[in-house]
Amino acid sequence: MANVFDYIAWRGDLPFTVSPVNEVDIVALSQIVLLDLSNAVPDEGSATIKECYKAFTKHGKRKKLGVIIPEDIKDLFSAMAKSERFSSVRLSRYVEDIDESTECQFSALVADAEDVDTRFVIFSGTDDTLVGWKENFNLIFKTPTRAQLESVKYLENAAKDFSGSIYVLGHSKGGHLALYSTAYCSDDVLKKIKQGYSLDGPGLPEGRESAEKLEKVKDKIISVLPQGSVIGRLFEHKENFKIIYSTEIGLFQHDAFSWEILGTKIVEAEDFSESGSGVDTGMRAILSALSEDDRRIFVEGLFKMFAAASCKTLTDVVYKMKDVVREYFKTSGETKKVLNRVFIKVLSDKYIRKLIFNTSMQVKKITAKPDKKAETKKSKNVKAKTSSTSSK
Hints:
Elements: H1 4-11, H2 23-32, E1 47-48, H3 49-59, H4 72-82, H5 84-87, E2 90-99, E3 104-113, E4 118-123, H6 130-138, H7 146-160, E5 165-171, H8 173-184, H9 187-192, E6 193-199, H10 208-217, E7 221-226, E8 240-244, E9 261-262, E10 265-266, H11 274-288, H12 292-308, H13 314-319, H14 321-330, H15 333-348, H16 350-367, H17 372-391
Helix pairs in contact: 3-4, 7-8, 8-10, 11-16, 12-14, 12-15
């Protein structure tokens, strides 16, 4: 089945003046903000995607994207730069703010399709840094986070000097920030927004205020959720949503490159999968059984374990899991009690347990280090065959 690369190969020769903005364009644009564009997008003014990609290949920081962010994003940026459709789109206002002291990971970008007077305000999902993941986990016991507040400011500034159509979008946490900023922006800005897209992004935390804000913007936002969505079904949703097919399983359906594309649309599924609904039910049951204070203790305790094991990124956690487990046994007091309660509930839920197992197996495949002995043996065999063929 086709994916976003196939779409660009098929539709990439048509400008937006010929073929209007569609949801697959939104998927493509949502991904490039995950790259470090600090030396690619100009600090002042704007530059085309073609120009920014050229600068990215020469001067851009080729940061490691980690265990869950696909390296395909770099190839997507290249394909967009070479296409008629995206190459002239102008990028500006890039910001990346990672601050451990305020537990904030915030990144955003503006893309302008000037020939159709359209602006895309794009929020980034979580990168590999544990700062970003800590901020995500903080949502279960406190709001607003600094990234949420920054998203509203960013949208307001991006919209105030623009009179055309505005799309607000993001993938994962970026989708959550697209939803949050749209819900909390001023009425004047809201009127300018043509459509918001949350691509497998969490909803808003429970509460009367969130419910009222969601009701206000439910027709402005579309949530795109894979049939086995886990991340995108967290918290509360009232907006319209579209269930789609993914070629992956479990948590890796979150990968936008696995979403099945047909023409200018993402292929729709009839309903969520049994496993996805099971995980959603289990997660809600676990959270509802915890007080706000217990949620805080759990999150703080979990990330203290990661810090004690010298983990700075999610990739570090994968490689240093033995060290993390060792730190768990050093934990004591109320923190240990809360951690135990959560872990027992997690492991006793068959759907969550299966999700963890499948995810760990997939991560091991992705992060598996090549067998040097096997590679050396293979190389010797190839050389031996070549030598034997040459001598005949």
